[in-house]
Every structure is written in C-alpha cells, then in structure tokens.
Amino acid sequence: MSLDRHDPEGAIAEAAKAYSNWGRWGEDDVLGTLNFLDEAKRREGAALVRRGVSFSLSQRFDMNGPQKGWRRRTNPVHTMLDTGTDAALGNQGFPHGIGGADDVIAMPLQCSTQWDGLGHIFDHGKAWNGRDAEKVVTSAGDLVTGIEHMAPYVAGRGVLLDVARAIGDDDGEPELPDGFAITAEHLTATAEAHGVSVGRGDIVLVRTGRLARARRDGWGDYAGGDAPGLSFTTAGWLHRTEIAAIATDTWGFEVRPNEFDHAFQPLHQIVIPNMGLLIGEMWDLDALAADCADDGVYEFWLTAAPLPITGAVGSPVNPVAVK
Amino acid sequence: MSLDRHDPEGAIAEAAKAYSNWGRWGEDDVLGTLNFLDEAKRREGAALVRRGVSFSLSQRFDMNGPQKGWRRRTNPVHTMLDTGTDAALGNQGFPHGIGGADDVIAMPLQCSTQWDGLGHIFDHGKAWNGRDAEKVVTSAGDLVTGIEHMAPYVAGRGVLLDVARAIGDDDGEPELPDGFAITAEHLTATAEAHGVSVGRGDIVLVRTGRLARARRDGWGDYAGGDAPGLSFTTAGWLHRTEIAAIATDTWGFEVRPNEFDHAFQPLHQIVIPNMGLLIGEMWDLDALAADCADDGVYEFWLTAAPLPITGAVGSPVNPVAVK
Amino acid sequence: MSLDRHDPEGAIAEAAKAYSNWGRWGEDDVLGTLNFLDEAKRREGAALVRRGVSFSLSQRFDMNGPQKGWRRRTNPVHTMLDTGTDAALGNQGFPHGIGGADDVIAMPLQCSTQWDGLGHIFDHGKAWNGRDAEKVVTSAGDLVTGIEHMAPYVAGRGVLLDVARAIGDDDGEPELPDGFAITAEHLTATAEAHGVSVGRGDIVLVRTGRLARARRDGWGDYAGGDAPGLSFTTAGWLHRTEIAAIATDTWGFEVRPNEFDHAFQPLHQIVIPNMGLLIGEMWDLDALAADCADDGVYEFWLTAAPLPITGAVGSPVNPVAVK
Amino acid sequence: MSLDRHDPEGAIAEAAKAYSNWGRWGEDDVLGTLNFLDEAKRREGAALVRRGVSFSLSQRFDMNGPQKGWRRRTNPVHTMLDTGTDAALGNQGFPHGIGGADDVIAMPLQCSTQWDGLGHIFDHGKAWNGRDAEKVVTSAGDLVTGIEHMAPYVAGRGVLLDVARAIGDDDGEPELPDGFAITAEHLTATAEAHGVSVGRGDIVLVRTGRLARARRDGWGDYAGGDAPGLSFTTAGWLHRTEIAAIATDTWGFEVRPNEFDHAFQPLHQIVIPNMGLLIGEMWDLDALAADCADDGVYEFWLTAAPLPITGAVGSPVNPVAVK
User: Fold this and answer.
1) PANTHER family per the record (chains A, B, C, D) (predicted)?
2) Cβ separation of A134 and B84 shorter than 8 Å?
C-alpha cells in the first residue's frame, strides 16, 4: 500500500471501507477485536508460562510523567488523606495504637500506560460498529462501549515484536529514530527474526525504543511529539492478522509526524472506530524486551486488565507478562 | 485463640509479637508476604488454566459505589474532556473527520475494589518491617513501600474459599450474616469442603456474600458498617499458611463490628504492619463463585496487578481469574 | 399570573417570550442583567457602608456539605500536598528551618455557595441571547459566556428580602415551609415591611430560612429535595424590576417541588437563557439577616466576585456584605 | 538593615524576634494582621468609591496558567459534567425543553491568584502565634487557622504601589527586572510619588510588572523562577506600617533569587508564621495600575474574599477593586 501524502481523506475512506469489522460480531457488540481472544487462545497463552517470571509493562504513575497539559492532559496528581507522620504524632483519633494512611488520585485516563477504549476515537461522527458518536459518548461517558465491558477478557497470549532490536540500526541502542514508520514488512520480518508467530486473538506488543530514549534523554516532546510508530499502511496487516489487541511503547501508537501532509492520527481513525481494535499506548516494554533478547522467547502469558471505570473511553493499566 | 473483648491492646500486642515477619526478608524488604509468591508458584498457577474462561473480580468504578464520604472517601468522579457529541457537532478542530473522546477520574485509591499497600496501616507508629511510620508515609506518599514496588508480582495461584456457601445457612442465599466472625476453623472446613489446599504463596479469596446482599438490598451501611469478615483470631492461620495475599468481598476484610469492645480494625493492625500481608477489599467474587460451585474447581490462575502509582498506599485493581 | 399545572411547555413558552432580554445589550453580550449594575449603582451601594461591619454569605466548603452525588455533584474534597506534621518532622527538605503546607481541591462548581453562569441552563437548545447551546458550551467549557467575563462587575448595592421573617409564621423560627412558593406579592410586601426599595441594578438576596433548618435538622434532602423558593410566577417581577442578580439560601432558587405536574426547574429555564439573569444559590444569609433584623437596615454594599475560571458555567463564591 | 548573604539562619532568627506579633491579639487568634482591618478602616475604604468603576485583580484560572508541576502544583483542570452539545442533542433526559451544563474543577489552592493562609508557612516547626506546626496543619487540613476564618473580613482600603512605574527604568515598559529587590525605601518613595499614604489596616498591592512581562513573553520560569519582589529587609516596614495584608503580581511575593546564598523564601518565614501577615500572590494588577496612572488616584475600595474552604492553607481569590 502506497500513500498519497496529499489525500488523507481519500486514504482514510478507502482503508475504513477495506478494513471495517462493523457488524462482524453482531450489532450489539461492545468488544471489537477482543472477540478474537477466545478460551482456546487463553489455554495456549497459559501454556507459555515456563519459568514463572513476571514483568510489569507499566510506567509509574506520578508527576514525572510525559504529560504537559495538551488538551488538559496532566500527569497524575496523587495526594494523601492520612499519613504516617500524622499517625506518629497521634493526630488520627484511632484506638489501641492503630494508625492509617489513605490516598487520592486525580488523573486523565490517557495520562500514562493505558488502553484506548472503543469510544476513544470516531470517524466522521461514527463510533465502533457504525454507531452515531453522539449517541455513544456523551458528557455522561461512553454509554455503550465503556471500557468496563472489557474487564474480564484481556488475558491471553502476548507476543513481543521488538522492532527496534530486529530492524534498528546495529550501532548503539536498540531504538528506532523519530518519524520512523513501521510497516507490515517490518512487523513480519521482526516476527521472523524472533521466531514467533502472530495470529488470531494475540495481543501484540511493538517496541520502538522511544520510551527508553525518553527515559535517558528526558521527556522532551515525547507526549505528542515526533516518535517512531506504526505506519498508516499497517492497517491491512492489523486487520488480516485478526489480532485481539496491540500496544506500543510510544505516546501515540502510530508514527509521528503522521504520514499525510495535514493529519492527526489517521491510523487511529481506521483501527478504533472501523476495525474495533484495542490499542495500548505508553507501555514500558524494556524489561520484558531485555529478557526476551536473553532467552530468545518472545511469547508469553499476558494479563492487561483495564479498570472497569463505568463509561470510560480508556483506562490506565498495569499489564503483567509471565514467561 | 480466645479473645478478651476488654483488652484490645493486650491482644494486639501479643498477636503482633507472635505473628511478626519483620526482618524475614531482610531489612530493605518492600514486598512482605508477596515474597512467598515465587516462580514455582506461578508455574503451578498457570497450570490451572484448563478451560480458558476468565472472570473479572472488580466492582465497577462509578458514582453508584459504596462510599459515603467517611474520611473524605468518595465514589469515583469520572468526567469527560471530549465527547462524541462534540465530535459529531464538529467542535473539536481535528482534520479529515477524526474525532475523539478523553476522560479524567478523581478517586480515593480506597474507594472500591482494591489492594491495601504495606503503608496503609501502622501499629503504634511502626510501619511494615519495623520502620517508623513518619519516615515511610509522608504527604509525599509512601516513600519506601509504595504499591508500585508490587507491580510485577501479583500473579499466581488463586484459591476461592466461599465460606458463605460452605458454612452459611442452608436456607436461602449463600451469605453470612453481618457480624459473623470467620475463624480459622471455618476457613479450613471450607477448603476441605471445596477439596482445595491453601499454602505458601497462594492468593486466597474469601467470599462472605456481603456484596451480593448489598447489590440486592442497596449499599446501606456497607462501607464501614456491619459485615461478616475474618475474626481477629485468624491472625495465626494467616501467618502459618504463608499465603501471599488475601482478599474479601467486604469493605473491611475483618468482621464488623470488630470483636473488641472499643476497637477499629485490629486484625489490620496485625497483618499489615507486622505480618506484611497484602490485603484486598471490596472484590466482587460472585461470578467466579458461581462458576466454582458449578464445576467444583476452586483454584485458578489469578492476576491482580495494582496500578504502579508512585508512593501509593493502595491501588484500585481489576483482578482477573482464569480457570 | 396563574399557573396551569398541566402545561409547563405552554407556560414556559409564554414567559420566555414575555420576559426575554435577547438582543437588549447587543448580539455579543456576555453579561445579561449584570449590565444593569452600572457605576452609578456602585456609588449608591458604597454609600451604604455606614458602620463598616462585614458579613460572609458563604457556606463553608467541605465534606459536610449538602451534596449527595446527584449527577456527579459531590462535596468538595480538600487534600494536603504538604503539612505541618511533615514540616515538624523535617520531611520537607527546605533550608534554614522554613516549612510549608500546600493544598488541593476537587469540587463541582455547583457544590455549595455559588453563582450560576449564563451557560448553566438552556431553553430548547438555546443559550443566553439566543445562541445555539451546542456552540456555547462544549466539553471545552463555555466558549462564549464563561463566568470569567463577570469577574470585575459583581459589586454593588445589595438588598436583603427576608421573606421568612416578614411573611413566615409568627410561631417559632423565621423559616418558610418546604414547598412554599414565594410570589411577587410576597417579595413586594417583604420589601415594604423592611422599608427598602428594589430596582434596576440591585443584587437581591431572598432568605427563606431553609438553610437554617438544614443546619439545625441535618441536610436530609436539602440538595434537590423539597424547599421553599421563588414561584414560577415571579418571572415578571424579576424582569420588570431590572435587578442585576438574585440569590437565595436554597439549593435550587425556585420552589421545590416545582409548580407543574412534571417539571424540572422551569423558572431557571426562563431567567437564565431568556432573561440573562445572574442567579445565586446556597448562600448563607442567616448572620446578615439577624443583623438586619437588629438594625432595621436591609441594604448594603455587596461584593460577590466569581472566580474567573475560564469557560465555567458557574463559580463558587464568598459574597461579602458590608453595612 | 543590611543583609549577610551567608547567614540566613541568623538573619531570620533576628527578624523573627524583632517583628513577631505572637500574642498581640490573644492566644486564640486566627486572623493575624487582618485584625488591623477594622470597621473604621472599612468606612474609610468605602468612601474611596468615587466613580464606581470596578476591576478584577485575578488571573484567569485555566490550563494556560503559570504552573509546571513543581511540588505537584498543576494548573486548574476544569471539566464539564454536562454540556450544551448534550442538551442540544437531547441526551440529558430533562422535561419541557430545559437543558443544563455543570462543571468540576481540580486545582491546587496555590495555583493562581491567591491568598496564603496563616497555616501556609512555618518557622522551625512553629506556626502563626507560636503554635506547634504539627498541631495546626495535619493531613486533615489547618485545624486552627484555616482560611475560612478570614471569610468575612478581607474588605477595606486598598492602596496600589506601582513600584515598576515609580522606580523602574524610564525606558520602555514599567517593569522591574528579575532579581530586583524592592526595599522599604522603594515602597516609601513610590507611595510619595503616588501621593498616597500607607498605614494600619490597609491592603497594599505592589506591582512589579513581572506578570505583564510573562504575559508578553510567555510564562517561562515565572512560577518559582527569577522575579522582582520584596527584599527580606522590608520585614520591618511590613511590621511597622501595621498593614492588614499585602499582595504582589509575582509568583512568590519576595525577590527571586532570594537574597541569601542558600535560601528559600526567607521573608515568608518572617511574615507568615511570626508576623501573621496575610500575603497575596500572582495578582493581576495591570488594568488597575493603568487606571491609577491615568487618574492619579492610587487608593480604592478592595474586596478580596477567600473561599471559605475549611482547613485550607490558602485560597484562590478574585479581588475586586472599586474606585
């Protein structure tokens, strides 16, 4: 698939039509491609637990995160309702020497390691499965496809495609440069290099090395700035492979700047409302990737359970991979 | 163990001494009994995935939750930064027909289905492992044992002890009455009735039926009010079995009212700061319990990954059990 | 004006037409009746400062407020970022013995003593001055009539109409019963009894005694429940007097239950989007009223400056009256 | 008073002793220098309303504010609970054509135009009036001197000292350079140039021009960065004049960098806990200053009522000056 940089509308319309899953799971569907992740796939995934070692794929949630206020997205603000200092000083009024600490958080659901819910993106006013966006996500939240519906299901076989390591420059760090558009060919070549297959119901993790760079050099423009990421042209691969979900170690999943002259996240516009694909962003894949490079095993059991926040269009998540 | 209702201080001091794990995993430990959950246990747990069916053990996070404002604990307030109505009306300013919805949450970390972190409770000014509470949890959060340290590890073998079903009145619903103190004998008898063992490194889920009652009859005084729960006398069992974690379907884990004349959550005071035990509260065990009653299998693979909120003394969690 | 209890639509349409101020201050107007409060009125108001005594007309903002969660309206949640306990214990890392405390608040702007902004209510999709509601208040806030535009102006002559004292039952407390509909005649008679005039540019405060009752008997159903308040039939008086603003000591300004069989705040629907009237709710008028009863002076200088929160459809406020 | 740049501890101790007001208003005092603002002063202030023109001295509260996350201070996050788009699309479920918009804010109380409460700063563990900091400000807030106590009182005579205009470089904008330490001599000379007196009970506004510069050039390091401001040596003047309150158009009131080699806000340490002085920061004095330069009148009626947030150590405020 080649891109006409000057015609995002045309390319989007064509891809939306070609890769639509509307109606595939019935008109009432609220799960999208998560339907591909079935019980057989879970059995297959659980069998990948060989050593019993586990990895968190989440960034830490705190004020040292990537957000800078764009569209009111801040970093998480965590405050205490009670503390150990108060307990030690006897300020709490509890009996028999018990003391306690409580806390509160205020945060955008899109602030750090997250899933994008099916109500997160619309295509010309249409949400997932062809529903009218204004009937789906109001000020009261996502009334139809809220992330809570996915709560039990996001556990299965995970596959890491460490594109940075497989495709990246041999010199230095395994990191793709900003603006690097990962194509279907890159994904296929990486899977081949890793000796791993990708197919129906899998949860695919694509590592670009962008977070490692941000961690080393500072956040800079990471949140929304230039980054490697999936090419718009991977839409077909994402559709054809019938994967259940995909996540990257970048702010925005797809390559930044986007591949059209005047565009904003065009691949999102295909894969969320039209394909119903579950997308994860800002995952921390580095520790897992180092382990995979060590033992040569790029598949594992993965649980990445969104918080069932009623009506949410996304959720922070602490994905846990077990090998 | 019998209780002197008039001497919480004495009973607590005695139990704290008898069941302390201070120093057991070194002076720098930040994981407590989660140390019992090792790689072998994870392999054992993963082998329990036989059918591939998965269950979320989380309540939904929304304003219809149990909180009523006690100690500034509110239900989660979820608001939208962008909506489908705005997208449909062309208010968002994005190109080529893309629209989006974002959201924000403000919530106490103790508002719904949760883990209590090791910094959540103190005993006479001492936090887990004998540290001074005022050095551990300040206004900046838990500087030592923040829940983020547990992020990769809470995945292993889960065991359901449906005490309500095994011990409860045969008439009507499988629910224990408020004020019912679950003893070690009840736990043992339940495990026996279920044909399941409990041991080192397990994550034990104790169902009382209290949430089912709240769901049917309304929240009422559920949050902090009367409820069935673990007896103070189970401290020895909790220590002896060397379980990694335990969770209940109640607001407060232990029986309410508490078993001493003037007391507040005395079992917490033993098991969190002294034993280093990971405790979960307000879990929704009903769907899982119904399935276990059906197939007679009370053990499963369980992932219950806290959000790695830096310095948090607890975390909302969506535990996922797979059988 | 008599009410047909069965025809809210008809009554609202009639009143909306009769009392509309659309276009009165030009098509770009963002101030509504606040335009009536001019410099001459401010000079008149300032001249009312005779003793120099000042009164706050605000409830305290805390968790002991009236909100119970309806439409996600909670009481204010105030948490500390730094405390004196941390300062005393040396946790803060500042030099030369300085210590500090900081704090955070999360609250609905409609949670307590407040102004309703002009973007708070719509009539059949129309906002103040005839604008389309969907062009005025989006997820980004009120793009046209945000409360910030009123920031400099809400200072002038205040008049207290203590209807509860002037009209209420002689026995017992000066409080009107729930469901009591205050009419134009009641307002006029009260002003007469107080020996005070009401006219163009004034800020009128109407005391019903409802807050005093809530303070004495508990909040109960105060927030949204039954209460005395202005009758729908006062719309003409509110228009004719050309007052700049009006506030009550009740949750909802108008009488509850509302006067139509099936209705929700019909007077709001007239006075905010059609008349452009600035409305205050949940003001605490009791201390001021006691003073006015003492000295017989029911007019004063009043400053009630909303916080200029950009795009807000309302604002918490601490009104200060000086006599 | 000359400063030994190498001895902040000594200078602070000396000034704390020299300018302490502890006990001046009794041991139960919660108002500090606000006690100076009496009824006579309010009568004097009200008499300054000659034209009736009013000014808001507040910045707008939104994401375009100065905060950058230091010590978890963010800009205000304002979100909508209901919108006009939802009303227009019929999503709200209200009868007879009424629609509504509600909103929520989450913000540090120190995020923008504000008063510092008396519990905001401590000196060697002591809060205002000699109280132990740990007894005054706990995780539950300021239990003694919360800003709510000041709610009725902050209304009186305001005086603008436009130091930037009176003292600053004649060339170009009336702005003092960063690092410029305003001394008592500067304050006195400015008052003289303006033909205005400063004395007991006044609320003094000091304009440096720093906000005008930030507005023109961008926030940059405004919040906590270099700025003009009061010299540590003004402590005596602040004490001697017996002013009720003082506010500046800067983030931090005092000159930045601070005047000692290793220091953090040493003047705060004198004036808040020792003197009990009410301090305002980040006020927008520019429109008022332009008017004062025009008409030559630098005194006015000023109401700057903090929100009575129970236990708050500060409050956002919309100060309104009337001339």
Assistant:
1) CYCLASE, PTHR34861
2) yes
Contact A136, B84 (CB under 8 A): yes
Residues of B in contact with C90 (CB under 8 A): none
Question: What is the Cα–Cα distance from C182 to A249, expressed in whole angstroms?
Answer: 62
**Cis upstream peptide for A257 (omega within 30°):** yes
pLDDT in tens, chain A (323 residues): 568 889 999 999 999 999 999 999 999 999 999 999 999 999 999 999 999 999 999 999 999 999 999 999 999 999 999 999 999 999 899 999 999 999 999 999 999 999 999 999 999 999 999 999 999 999 999 999 999 999 999 999 999 999 999 987 666 779 999 999 999 999 999 999 999 999 999 999 999 999 999 999 999 989 999 999 999 999 999 999 999 999 999 999 999 999 999 999 999 999 999 999 999 999 999 999 999 999 999 999 999 999 999 999 999 999 999 99
Angle in degrees, 0-180, between the axes of helices B286-295 and B210-217, rounded to the nearest 10: 120
In this complex, which chains have at least 3 CB pairs below 8 Å with chain B?
A: A, C, D
Interface confidence (ipTM) of the complex = 0.97
- Residue position matching structure tokens 């200053």: D289
Chain A: residue whose CA lies nearest to D71: A63
- Touching check for C87 and chain B: CB below 8 Å? no
Structure confidence by residue, pLDDT tens digits, C15-51: 999 999 999 999 999 999 999 999 999 999 999 999 9
Using an 8 Å Cβ cutoff, are C159 and C203 in contact?
A: yes
Domain definitions of chain D by residue range: 8-71+108-322, 77-105
Sequence-separated (6 or more) residues with CB below 8 Å from residue C76: C61, C62, C63, C65, C105, C106, C107, C111, C112, D309
Number of CB pairs, chain C paired with chain D, less than 8 A apart: 376
Q: Is the pLDDT of residue C170 over 80?
A: no
Note whether A52 contacts B72, CB cutoff 8 Å.
Answer: no
- Nearest CB partner across the interface for C152, out of D54, D96, D110: D54
Three-state DSSP class for residue B314: strand
Mutation to test the D interface, candidates A85, A139, A143, most D Cβ within 10 Å: A139
| D86 part of contact set with chain B, CB < 8 Å | yes
Q: List all chains that touch chain A, counting a touch as 3 or more CB pairs closer than 8 Å.
A: B, C, D
- What value does the mean pLDDT take over residues B131-152? 97
Q: Return the residue of D nearest to B102 by Cα.
A: D79
Which is it for strands A98-100 and B245-248: parallel, antiparallel or unpaired?
unpaired
Whether A72 sits inside 8 A of D80 (CB atoms) is: no
Let me know if domain C8-71+108-322 sits in CATH 3.50.30.50.
Answer: yes
Kindly list the distances between the CA atom of residue D48 and the CA atoms of B22, B259, D156, D190, D322, in Å, as whole numbers in the listed order: 69, 67, 10, 20, 8
Residue of D nearest to C121 (CA): D100
Q: Does B88 touch chain D (CB under 8 A)?
A: yes
